[in-house]
Fold this protein.
Amino acid sequence: MPVPRRLIIGILAAAAVVALAVLVVLWRGRDNDRRIEAELSEAVDALRPFPRRIDEATEILEARAEGRRMIYVYRVTRDAPLDIEQQGLRLRRIVCGSEAMRRSIGQGVTFIYEYRGPGDAQPVLGRVEVGACE
């Protein structure tokens, strides 16, 4: 039994509506991605100029936004050992205690803190990633 022409047209029209809805959702998602990435880039600009002393033991060398990752690079200016585990706990408290940063994490942003030793070409002493708050 042949399928009525009206039924075929109705099915095609319904499929077109669904496809259009999917495209709208995807484009809104892309706009949101662009907005988040622009906000992260603005945050980097607000931190300039680099390097800049943060406290008696650290200076920020660089900050950069890579997609939904906000990366901070610090230099430890003392020869004292860095307890990266304790630093990670402190950073998680700070990040998760900030409403703006928590909201960013809720939108998929990860904050990355990288620590280097004294001197210009020092290896990474430790790295802390905060991408979730419990």
In short: Residues 3-28 have pLDDT under 50 and may be disordered. The longest helix spans residues 5-47. Strands lie at 52-53, 58-66, 69-76, 110-116, 124-130. The longest strand covers residues 58-66.
